Amino acid sequence: MNRSINFVIPALIALLTITAWWLLNQPMDEPPWPTRIQGFSFSPMGIDDDPSRKRFPSIEHIESDLALLQGRAHAIRTYTVEDTLAAIPRLAAAHDLNVTLGAWIGPERNANEIEIKRLGEVLREGNRNLVRVIVGNESLLRADVTVPDLIDYLKRVRKLTWLPVSTAEPWHVWIKHPELVEQVDFITVHLLPYWEGIPLEQAVDYSIKRYKEVQEAYPNKPIIIGEVGWPSNGRRNRGAEASTANQTRFLRRFLARAEAEGYIYYVMEAFDQPWKAKTEGATGTYWGVYNASREAKFEFSQPVVRIPHWRELAGLSVVIGVLLLAFLYRDSSTLSKRGKGFLALITYAISTAAVWIVYDYTRQYMTPATAIVGLLLLIGGVGVIVLLMAEAHEWAESIWLRKWRRPFPLRSVPDDQLPFVSIHVPAYNEPPELLKETLDGLAALDYPRFEVLVIDNNTKDPAVWEPVRDYCEQLGPRFRFFHVDPLAGYKAGALNFALRETDPRAEVVAVIDADYIVIPEWLRHLVPGFMDPEVAIVQAPQDYRDADQNAFKAMCMSEYRGFFHLGMVTRNERNAIIQHGTMTMIRRTTLDEVNGWAEWCITEDAELGLRLFEAGHKALYIPCTYGRGLMPDTFADFRKQRYRWAYGAVRILLHHRHALLGLRPTALSAGQRYHFVAGWLPWFADGFNLLFNFAALGWSVAMVMFPDAITPPYMTVALVPLVLFVFKMSKSFFLYRRRVTATLRQSLAAGLAGLALSHTISRAMFGGLVTGKLGFFRTPKMAEAPAVIRALADAREEALFAFAFLLAGALVMLREDAYMLDVRIWVAVLVVQSIPYLASVLVSLTSAWQKLPASLVGVMSVMDCAEKNGVPQPVSREN
């Protein structure tokens, strides 16, 4: 039955995916394209042509373009007579095309004079297919010239020809300047509702309405429509969406109305103009009926489909989804139907989004710059997919497991069969009273055979370590104290020293930090796990007893709880837990086999666990509290602790990369490799997010400095960080509420504390990649809380980043195109990217204010254990 579910659920979700593609691409009947339209706006620029760089098409190229339009239009409209474009009237005559001849009028007077002179030369050629002349194109709209200057140019051209003369402007410019109307023989109006943000369904009626407004204002002047069209790609302008389907629908609807009303019009435009991206942004490129390769971009008579190739894209998204899902389903026998359905839904959603984004991106004209950006986005996209899959997998396994594959049964073992345990307590410069509390807890253990070794390494002040030595003597022969100075290797060095001093009878070595107070049942409950000869590690979670001191510590405790009661639990299912250096037990013989603790590694505990897995040993984890320690007192200490953990993770992955990638033979299973790579993937994502942040700020600066040339990043790409942020926050919040049994305030506090560490983790990722050694940092306990100024100084990097993002967002909103959807989405990205940095500042300030009560967050309950069917179950108990 379970195996059939693995096929039924993906098949159903695949059918749902294809149905969604089908529903979004229903054919839409539209009026057919006329056999021969009135005219095209005609700029015969090829993919490599660029008039701004004086690169113009050849005569042969122009003639080829005119041949393509022959029989499909009565006329064409040109914009300039520069260079080879002056030959268009002569060439068009051979293809039965009339010409409305254009002269470009810009801000440079000398260039305008040269253009007028060339216009006169073309007019003197006497081409019979010339029907009218247009002097200037939106020159007033761009403020290139004044109205009196334009009128002067019009008067001069009228002296050169008997043809009717006008200029071309949008409808509102004509309404505003009746004095200009008096100087033209006809009105050339531009009707481009996309630029006015008019939704497609209203666009044709809107255009006709504006045409009639001009007609009513000037009833005695003939009117032609010099430009009418819609872009097939580019930015969304308020309610106006640029797409091929919308371009098709608008033009076919408008042409049907125009033919019925007898309008003279020129469709904007015949061919796409890639060179316009520099002057008009991405949208300016895509107004052509034909693309830059001279291929029709849409059907002229068939029903309109939003994405003509949707069947191929739907099939591709299903294939990718199946491949991804096959990977996730490889080891999902204990996952419920809901969990498998959730994974299938997420997987197909990811694959469909990926296919759509790639399709949408590749619809633009590729330049070296866009190709490089596309390649980088593809690499980043693969990383995003892997991250989302890993997050979704943890989500599913945390909520929808039918049963635990590796429960930890409580075993009753007679005292005479319990192994001898050596408990190691490494200490460095710890307050004596703190360490005495730890020793009192160990002295109260309900276990028949154990010893305690306290190793004080490198503490200089005798007043710190001597009281602990004396207290050990008071506690009896079970407690042995060692003060070693100097001792290399930091904590790992101290543990290796203790291993050499361990009683030969010891079969199990247990390690706790110097601030931990264990409960009496710790050894009696967990040591029986070693009755399985394959078990090398038995691990209990880290927990804390000082969360009630203030809001900061309550917040930190909420953040810690997620890893020890979510990530570690799912890892345990595949024998892939991360060993941590307190509340852990290791079989003595296996510890000797792998030569003890690695003194090269700053996170020697996790590294040892991975080595034991590589050797084929097992580890057991029980998510119940058996000992509690103290948390960092300040945000600075909290951050330094997390930096050390993240830095150590990178060094471990690099050191063991051949084993994790299967390049070196080990006993690691696929599940173990997966968890050790995927488990630390969110930290690597924080590292790459830092690179994205620098790029985002650089792009925003360019948008502010060069608003006419630099537009926001591609909208579908810009949406990715927003979706990723929402997904991760939703997952974290949902799992906290369901699995960690956290309150709403605790869940929010945990999310805030986690976000506050994002920048620290990102720095640690790069630090671990480029440096090989980091000095050990002992997390201070009971440190005096910093002042507010100190708290701000501790988070100064994050504060600067937050300020930079918010300032960038504000400045981008000052652009003239700030109303555009892609600009607003980009500003939303900038604001979202500032949130982790703002969280750092807020958490640092919270740590500075010791008087903020823990009740503002709520102190998380202790995860006690109650036996149910022989298996320890976590149950909540108030502190």
Automatic annotation (TrEMBL):
Catalytic activities: a 1,2-diacyl-sn-glycerol + UDP-alpha-D-glucose = a 1,2-diacyl-3-O-(beta-D-glucopyranosyl)-sn-glycerol + UDP + H(+)
Where exactly are the transmembrane stretches of this chain?
A: 7-24, 310-329, 341-359, 365-390, 680-702, 714-736, 748-770, 799-814, 826-849
Keyword line: Glycosyltransferase, Hydrolase, Magnesium, Membrane, Transferase, Transmembrane, Transmembrane helix
**How would you describe this protein's topology in the membrane?**
Multi-pass membrane protein
| Gene3D superfamilies (alphabetical) | Glycosidases, Spore Coat Polysaccharide Biosynthesis Protein SpsA, Chain A
Q: Name one GO molecular function term.
A: hexosyltransferase activity
Write down the top EC class of this protein: transferase
Q: Which GO terms describe its cellular component?
A: plasma membrane
Question: What EC number(s) would the UniProt record show?
Answer: 2.4.1.336
In terms of InterPro entries, this protein maps to: GH, Glyco_hydro_17, Glycosyltr_2/OpgH_subfam, Nucleotide-diphossugar_trans
PROSITE patterns found in the cross-reference section: GLYCOSYL_HYDROL_F17 (PS00587)
Q: Where is the protein localized?
A: Membrane
Biological process (GO) annotations? Answer: carbohydrate metabolic process
Spell out the PANTHER family in the cross-references: BETA-(1-3)-GLUCOSYL TRANSFERASE (PTHR43867:SF4), CELLULOSE SYNTHASE CATALYTIC SUBUNIT A [UDP-FORMING] (PTHR43867)
Protein name in the entry: Beta-monoglucosyldiacylglycerol synthase
